Amino acid sequence: MGKFSVHLLLSIAAILSYGLVGLPDAAKAQSEPQPAGQTVTVTEPNPVVKPTDWAYITLKLVASKFNCPSTPDLSSTYFISGVEITRYEFAQVLSECLDKVSQLLRTQEITKIITKQDIAAIQKLQEEFEAELSTVGKGLQGIMSPISIQPNEPIYKHLQLIIQEYGCVPETRNSSYDLGNTELKEAEFVEIFNGCLRRVNQLAISGTKQWTRAELEPLAKLESEFYYRRIR
Prior knowledge:
This protein is mainly α. The longest helix has 21 residues.
């Protein structure tokens, strides 16, 4: 995960002169200092982030405004589908958006649309999920081994069922690719799996289908099977 520059955000904030519009005041409210003499009880953060939480709502608006995340993974699938997610899954999505905003800042194109309130909200999200952001991975992306996945393996058959379940078409080689008889390289497996994630996300974004976490469980199971296969 690319580190997001708070200093860069602050420098942009310093030159912005337009008003605070767009994102909710929840982040600001969360950071208000406590009155003098008031006892503050420190509690552990909730292990899940719900669609009604200020962080979830704020990130939804950030994601919509800056068109992120773009990398398909289960965390973004859960988020786009509007179901509660773990703090780590939330950080996966937030990381993608931080990278996107950081990229836009480097091109200076973002100064046309970003506001001081946007920056404050993004910084608040980054501070709230700092611990989780430091451990964010890259899902099924990464270095692939040269070992192929054979048609008779359970993980291969599970992938076939996933394709039937979500109506996603294999995106390797050509549209008539026969998934039932040809071995898969790991890179091809990941491409097909990510194609299914994109399909699910597209349906969720269009409103055609609102997935529940239980309905997305087959995708999570396949991902965990893939990881297990690689490390055993």
